[in-house]
Amino acid sequence: xxxxxxxxxxxxxxxxxxxxxxxxxxxxxxxxxxxxxxxxxxxxxxxxxxxxxxxxxxxxxxxxxxxxxxxxxxxxxxxxxxxxxxxxxxxxxxxxxxxxxxxxxxxxxxxxxxxxxxxxxxxxxxxxxxxxxxxxxxxxxxxxxxxxxxxxxxxxxxxxxxxxxxxxxxxxxxxxxxxxxxxxxxxxxxxxxxxxx
Length: 197
What we know:
This protein is α/β, with parallel strands linked by helices. It has a single domain, classed as Collagenase (Catalytic Domain) (3-Layer(aba) Sandwich), CATH 3.40.390. The protein has 5 helices and 10 strands. It has helices spanning 24-35, 72-86, 137-151, 172-177, 181-192; strands at residues 2-4, 12-17, 45-52, 58-62, 65-71, 91-96, 100-108, 111-123, 127-131, 164-165. Strands 1, 2, 3, 4, 5, 6, 7, 8, 9 and 10 form a 10-stranded mixed beta sheet that branches. Helix 1 packs across helix 3 (137-151). Mean pLDDT is 78; it is low at 1-8 and 158-162.
C-alpha cells in the first residue's frame, strides 16, 4: 500500500509491530492525517512495508490489565537492525499498539529517584517509534505529526532525551494543533526562510 501527497522530500517507510494485518489501513490513515499538520507537506508519501512480531521485554499493569511492553532503548535497537536487514534507506517508523517505556534516574532532594515513563513518540533522522497504547486516533495523529516534525530538526524535548512523554499530551498546544508552541515557531521560521516547500 502506498499513499502519495505532493512534496519534494523522501517517502516514509511504515512498519507495524505485533499488529494484526487488518489494522494496517488504520495505521496508514493516521500517518496520512498527520501529514496535514505540516505547512505545505514535508513527505512524499507513506510506504507500508509490513508487520513483524517482536517479543516483549516485560509486562506492565494498567487499569487492572496486564500488557506486554517494550523497553524503549531495546526497541530502537531492534528497529535499527530491521532497517539494516531490509536495506531500507528512508526513515523507518515502527508503529505499535503496545506500551513502550523508558526508565531513568533523576536527582531529587539529595537522592536519586527512579522514573518510569510511557514513550508515545520518538523519531530520529533514521528510525522512529510510535506507540498508540491507550490513545485515541485523533491524539495519535497529532503525536505522529509532532514526531515527524522532530525528524525535520525540531528536537527540543531534551529531558532526558528527545522523547514525547505522556504528560506533554495534557498541554493545550499539543491537544489543539499537534505541535507545541516552540515547534510551531521553528516550523514558521523555516517556512519563511524557504527551507520548507
